[in-house]
Amino acid sequence: MINADVYAHQNNQFHSWTIHWWPPCDWLMDLCNGNIVVLENIYRHLEKGEDSRTASVTGRNEIGFAAVSITLVDVVVFVPLALVTGLVGNIMREFALVVVFSTLMSLFVSFTVTPMLASRFAKLERLTKNSLPGRFGVWFEEKFKNLTDEYIKILKWGLVHRGKVALLTMGLLLASFALVPFGFIGSEFIAVADRGEFAVTIEMPPGSTLENTNFITHQAERVISRIPEVKKMFVNVGASSDGFLAQSLNNVAELNIALVDKKQRVRSTDDIAQEIKTTIGQIPGAKVRANPIGIFGTANQTPIQLVVSGTTYGDARKASAIVADLIRKIPGTADVRLSSEEGKPETRVEIDRQKMAALGLTVAEVGQTLRVAFNGDDESKYREGDNEYTIRILYDQLDRSKTSDAGSVTLVNRKGQFVELKQFANIYQSVGPTKLQRSDRNSSVIVFSQAVGRPSGSIGEDIKTALAKTKLPQGVNIIYQGDLKNQAEGFGSLGLAMIAAILFVYMIMVALYDSYVYPFVVLFSIPVAMIGALLALALTMKSLSIFSILGIIMLIGLVAKNAILLVDRANQMRAEQGMSAYDALIEAGQTRLRPIMMTTVAMVFGMMPIALSTEAGAEWKGGLAWALIGGLISSLLLTLVLVPVVYTYVDGLKEKIPALFNRVSWTRKLKFKKPMPELQPQLQAE
């Protein structure tokens, strides 16, 4: 059962409107604003004294155009989101498709099931102060009537002082956009959420054996197991994962840690990870870093990654050191490191190619022999019955433990002669980079950095500004990877989706209003929604992420319905009763305030649980909810005045440039310099 207490303005009496719903239809009614709008309009006709069936048919027909408009506007906003490609498209495609089809279904319900049930179960009831619900209803309607009267006063003032309304709106819009460059609103790809899971990577000095790394890891396990919030732990020695990629290294170990539920602990995941880093970092030679488990269920990539590439490894190494020192000075950076570091012990073999050729050997033969000697060869098999065993051939540990032993490696040339490696090669101990990487066929080194206390996108902007003032070696290029790259691609895709959504909304309005100019009145509701969305993000200290931008895109469809309801009613009054633009707008504001308030308040309260949630992963969706709440509130407060003001400006243009509003005449001027002969009689008649 759904009760809506309303006020009968015609006869100064309070009534209660009660509609009984079958349970399966309850969720369909709440699915879309169109149902609320249809129900409210049906009630208005019931209030005029019409019977329930007549009121249902008349109310649905009268509001049908607006219901179709606000539904199609929601649909065309989400269609571009379903077509976005890349990582952002994979995240949002299913969500967009669900909203599109459920919204279309709600339109069908609002035109069929809702009027049918209203025609049979809707009735008027007189509200009295004899009961608690009655007293509340009478009090509420008195307050709503006062609110309506105050709104009409503000609307009349706005229609008289149109310039002040326009300047005030423009000032608020510029101030809200200024929140981003002035640092009140940060930016990042996806907000870091407290899921109670993170990965700790322990890195020992280059050249450390697997056994030594395992020994240190055992010490770290004992330290972590004493932390009361730790629920379970999975350890992998000799390998680590950075995002989706895994690499095997003898001096690296990774510990995946899961904490108890968020409600059962006082400290956050970041605090516990910081404690682990501090404690394990006291082990001599150990470098520790922690990455939270992200939205994809794996350890997040280091958010800030800069690929420094040059024509030679020396240039790339030198430039990467400069970039790393620069990043360390940026506020919010931590654990700045390079993907490749000097100091890994290695045995170098410098071959005298002339001597090697004189002895009848090639580089390929030398390399193959050294690989078998020190790394082993397991291509040989031994079979015994049904069992097959792999034979691994390599030098004994004693014969390959010293650099001098490498010179005694014996090779056989094409003549069958035995030749030792030291006869044509110089062998010595040295150090080198831990890893060799290439980017676009150039030597490269990646600079990694964590983001602490600030969004990664804001830190990235500071890095770009600092790099623009820094001189790097000639031929060095810098490519942004990680979250910085994902953010640039994601924001670009969502920006295109937003532009496409606005264009689709405009085209829908052109088709429905049969005009190229009046749809601009509806589009003016979008900028005022941005005011509240950005202000809400700044006040709640949320950043611009792909989810908060998704909320802003959703606002395009949600706030346009306020303008559609006002414009549709004003046009209807002017067409049916011949009202002036001023009187039609006053009547539209008075009539449509209730459905606008009902739909907006319903959506705001629907978003509040998401905005106020403290569950694990709530940080991802908090920005979306607050952007919607702020945008809906600012749209409610400003659209109700700004849209009528813009409507009067457009109506003034209609008198000055009537051809601009004649779609047939305008199309004719655009397409034909001279009407075609077969169209001349029709155009003359028009």
Task: Note the main attributes of this structure.
five-stranded antiparallel beta sheet; 21 helices; 19% strand; alpha+beta; 686 residues
Structure description:
Helix 18 packs antiparallel against helix 19. The longest helix has 39 residues. The protein has 686 residues and is of the alpha+beta class. 55% of the residues lie in helices and 19% in strands. A hairpin with a 2-residue loop joins strand 5 and strand 6. The strands form six sheets. Strands 8, 9, 16, 17 and 18 form a five-stranded antiparallel sheet that branches. A four-stranded antiparallel sheet has the order 5-6-4-7. The N terminus and C terminus are likely disordered.
Output the number of helix runs: 21
The value of Rg in angstroms is 36 Å
Summing up helix and strand content along with how strands pair, one would put the structural category as alpha+beta
Query: Overall 3D geometry?
Result: elongated
Question: In which range does the helix fraction lie?
Answer: 55-70%
Uncertain stretches = 1-32, 663-686
**Major sheet size, sense and barrel closure:** 5 strands, antiparallel
Strand content: 15-25%
Let me know the number of strands.
18
| Average of pLDDT | 78
For the termini, the CA-CA separation is 52 Å
Give a short synopsis of this structure:
This protein has 686 residues and is an alpha+beta fold.
Topology, element by element:
Layout: E1 2-8, E2 13-19, H1 23-29, H2 33-47, H3 52-82, H4 86-111, H5 113-121, E3 123-126, H6 132-160, H7 162-178, E4 197-203, H8 210-225, E5 230-242, E6 245-259, H9 269-280, E7 287-292, E8 304-310, H10 313-328, E9 333-338, E10 342-351, H11 353-358, H12 363-374, E11 377-384, E12 387-393, E13 410-412, E14 418-420, E15 425-433, E16 437-439, E17 442-451, H13 456-468, E18 477-482, H14 483-513, H15 519-523, H16 525-539, H17 546-577, H18 581-612, H19 618-656, H20 663-671, H21 680-685
Antiparallel strand pairs: 1-2, 2-3, 4-6, 4-7, 5-6, 8-17, 8-18, 9-17, 10-15, 11-12, 13-14, 16-17
Helix pairs in contact: 2-3, 2-4, 2-18, 3-4, 3-5, 3-14, 3-17, 4-14, 6-18, 6-19, 7-16, 7-19, 14-17, 16-17, 16-19, 17-18, 17-19, 18-19
